[in-house]
Amino acid sequence: MQLLKDRILKDGVVKPGNVLKVDSFLNHQMDITLINEIGKEFKSRFADCPITKILTIEASGIGIACIVAQYFDVPVVFAKKAQSINLDGEMYTTKVESFTHKKVYDVILAKKFLGPEDHVLLIDDFLANGCALLGLIDIVKKSGATLEGAGIVIEKGFQTGGKQIRDMGIRLESLAIIDSMTDTSLTFRD
Ligand code: 5GP
Question: Reduced to 3 states, what is the DSSP secondary structure of residue 183?
Fold first, then answer.
């Protein structure tokens, strides 16, 4: 998506540790005009899928997922990072290692919000090593819902998550795939 790539080149900042900061337009301050275009793009890429629910993970996926969901006219449900797990059987649970915080979280989703009748599109801001997406995939499996695919705004193609998820046979659409980045240059896959 050229509009997004241009914006990353203009306003993205590369930080040590292979972190790209896009907090001026995507995941802290949010440019809604751009994110609306992102929503339209995901809708056109997944137009053939009978999506009933969009699933994301807190925190930075939520705002983007809400805008995307307007183009699919379906609810958003987000997996929550839990302090402690209440094992009363009402929650799907999984574990996710955070790329940015280097910490393992328990992640939960109430069973009443996802079930076998659902067709799910996963949405997130970044794909790096794939832990966040793999956690969401695990929750979809546990729910018995059909996973239609995953939509990622920025994939860091030099990290392993994208390959691992495509190798699982999951339809993965990333709007910008970064092949390499340094302080002074950033290149995209075509
Ligand atoms: P993964 O689980 O695929 O390793 O990382 C995905 C999650 O880590 C995303 O939900 C995102 O919040 C965060 N993340 C990973 N890489 C970056 C990055 O380069 N910049 C920012 N801002 N967040 C990232």
Answer: coil
